[in-house]
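#data-curation
PF: Archiving a pair of folding outputs for the training set. Convention for this channel: one message per protein, sequence first, structure tokens after, nothing in between. First:
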Amino acid sequence: MTRLLSMAFWGDNFWQQKPRLPDWAPVLFAVGIAVYFALASEPSPVLLFAIIALNLLCLTLCKNRDAILKIAIAAPLLVVLGVGWANIAALYKTAAVLKYHYYGPIEGRIVKVDRSASDALRLTLDRVVLRQLTPVQTPERVRVSLHGPLLNFKPVPGETIMLTGHLSPPAGAVEPSGFDFRRHAWFLRLGGLGYSRTPVVVLAPAGHAMALARARMLISTRVQAALPGQLGAFAATVLSGDRSGLNAKTLQDLRQTNLAHLLAISGLHMGLLTGFIFALLRLAVLSLPGSARHWPAKKIAACGAILAGAFYLALSGGNVATERAFVMAFVGFGALLFDKRALSLRSVSVAAFLVLLLRPSALLGPGFQMSFAATLALITVYTIWCKKRWQPWPKWTQPIWMVLMSSLVAGLATAPIAAAHFNMVSQYGLLANLISVPLMGLVIMPAGVIGLMLMPFELEGGGRFG
């Protein structure tokens, strides 16, 4: 006990952990963001600026002093910067919100297509026009579920449509400390939510706007045409991020078996896609005569994998898990370009910091928490595994044990977060992931990539196995 209280003990541990101190920067920044969202009112900009200025002054004055003192000053500075950045992000997302229930004509441009909890087709609209509301009073975006006759209506992102429907302002949390949809809608700039039971009228075609969103829908349509039913809807979700074809029963089954993470284009999908492209390009370069001596095949393949990941990120719409996965893939393949170690906690910290800079509100969502919890746990266990060189069984069984350990570690890391957010604990998650993850890596994603490559030739059915 005396040793734990001694300064020498903490000083020795501090210097041992000094190389990892930059990895704590996103943690402190996240603490500041969490503090902002826990406040009952907006913080004073003058007070925040004064604290930041005082900390910067202290850092300047102790420039050549003890490193521990610098850390003691920099830590609260990062926390305050997190509070200020979250405040700036919240103010930047300021948009009009409906003050009352609205019924009447709704005009707008389609920017997103998905499905509601009641399994209805749902449209997110911008450039909204509402009757008897001025542009200042009109929400920037509204979301409408279609419960009426669709009459062969197939939504295309970029189209301007009109319908008659009901809209209401976003509601707050239904229980203390529960999910606050009003806050979630604020950062999405959703000022009205509702439904319609009338047919949809297309006022103007898509034109040249939102080309990537239309490409996503086109890929989804082609995949579902090649694979009818929920099988095609699942494949379209994995490849393009379009979930509009998945019905409520399929989503519920995936959640109960702890396989819903397969739908989110995250580290698994990004890793499999970029890894497959990396291997394909490397083999292609090495197959050229004399390329092994004159061409850096690994670096060329890494550049191609980064470009493929960037396209996949843009095509999928770029949610939090996909952004995190792309940043980590970028850092990993970038490390190969400079002959550095590709997998480390530093890549996780860089990804977390960039995601929090882009979307501070993502910190409160299950997507951010589960994604980074699983990734952090997997890298930690993998690092310990390599250092200890555990190999209790024959070498040929190591891939099997790695898959088993990956599913177990990721499941244990995300189970408390899933229970807190969804009030659900999966009982068959480990077994289901042991079956599904190898299939995703060995069959589904390679077949999907081949299908996408054959799609311009209208031969995407050739990328299907089974």
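PF: Second:
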Amino acid sequence: MTDLERIKQGVIEGDMPRVKELTAKALTEGAAPLALLRRALIPAMNVVGERMRTGEFFVPEVLLAARAMKAAMEIIKPLVLESRAYEPTGRIIIGTVQGDMHDIGKNLVVTMLEGAGFEVADLGVDVSPERFVEAVREKKPDILAMSALLTTTMGQMAAVMKALSDAGCRQRLKVIVGGAPLSPRFARDISADGYAEDAGAAAELAKGLVASRRAATA
């Protein structure tokens, strides 16, 4: 088994100390930072997402894998950015809507998106429609992701959609939503582009939307 395969397996198993040690060792021995990202970390998180989707992994296993992946990323990210050769899968803004302070689910989604190679700007919780619009204008993302964990805050998603349209920011932006009280029907009702029931599904949905958009403009 190669070091890349060991790193991938270590992330899947959530073995953070082993992943850090193997990552540092691989870099010392001349491994390319981008190779570690593309051939070990991203594939590992893809496996984690799939196992979460099929019910083999639950939140504890995903959190351990995320911790291991982030430990490796702390080592290689400066080197990847320094190389200027890395193009992210896409750019995403994410936040929990106004009035809602829940962030555990959102944080898992952020981890899975980063593990899929996305550049993610996390706005945090209790994010107003105006703040979402401001961030979209500033960062020009491919996708805006919104989370709501309360039935009383679901309506804020519709408010964000209206604010985006009023500001002229909706046309080329894809919007995805998620959270315990939501459903695919709700996503359609507010004219979002997709709904994800968990973090793994969110990463797959985002990858599909970015791929479709790029194919349409190719």
